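SUBJECT: protein chain
CONTENTS: sequence, C-alpha cells:
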Amino acid sequence: MNTMQETSFGQDVLNVERVGDVWTFTLGRPDKLNALNADIVDALLHAVTRADAEKAKVMVFRGAGKGFCAGFDLSGFEAQSEGDLVLRFVRIEMLLQAVAATRAMTIALAHGKVFGAGVDLVAVCKRRIAAPETTFRMPGLKFGLVLGTRRFGEIVGKEAARETLENVSSFDAERATQMGFLSQILPQEAWQEVVDQASSTAALLTDQARSDLYRVLGPVHEDADLAALTRSAARFGIKDRLRSYLAK
C-alpha cells in the first residue's frame, strides 16, 4: 500500500492512498466540512490526472470527518476579484470533467451533509454510494451558477432535476435512491466491500474496452458544460449574488 499526501501552498488538503490499481482520494479539510477551496480543487485535479496517467482501474472519492463535501468554499470571497471567483468555478468544472473522462471506474462514498459542488462530484462518478444519514442540496442557482446541472438531469431525469433545482430542495439518501441518483445506501462499515467488488469488476475489461464503454454510454458535452458554467459565473455581479445568498 502506498499513501501519499498531496499538498498545495503548504496545506495538507488531500490524502491519496494507492492499493494496487485502486486509488482513494480523501478530502482533508474536515474542519471546513471539506469545502472546496482553490487548494483542494487543484490537488484533486492533479491527483486524478496522475492516477489516470498511471492507469488506475478504480478511483474512490470520500471525505474526512463529519461529511463528504460542503461544496464551494465561500469563506474569504470578499477579498477576491470577480475574475478570481470565476476562475475558481471554472477549475471545479475542469475537475469534474477530468473525473468524467477517466477510463477508471469511479466511486463516490458520501456521508453527512453534501452541498453544491460536492453533489456534483458525487454525480460525476459511475457508482454513487451514501451512508443512510446523508443529505444533499444544490443551492448554486440561488446565486445564478449553472454547475453540474446537465449531469444531474441525465441521472435523475429532466423533470425531477428541474423540480429539485428550481425549489433548491434538500433530499435525503432514500429520496436520492428513488430518483436514481444513488446506486446504493450502505453504512460506512460496508464500503470496503463495494471497493473490493469494483476492483474485481474493473479487472474484467481491458482499460481500452472500459474507456470505449464509458465513452459510448456517457456522451461528452465538455465544451457546452464549460460554456454554460462560465457564462453564468461571469455574468456581472457574482459577488453581489453571493452576498445576497449568504444574507438569507
Q: What stands out?
A: The domain at 2-247 is CATH 3.90.226.10 (2-enoyl-CoA Hydratase; Chain A, domain 1). The first strand starts at residue 2 and ends at 8. DSSP finds ten helices and ten strands in the chain. Strands lie at 2-8, 11-19, 22-27, 58-63, 105-110, 113-115, 127-130, 135-137, 171-172, 184-185.
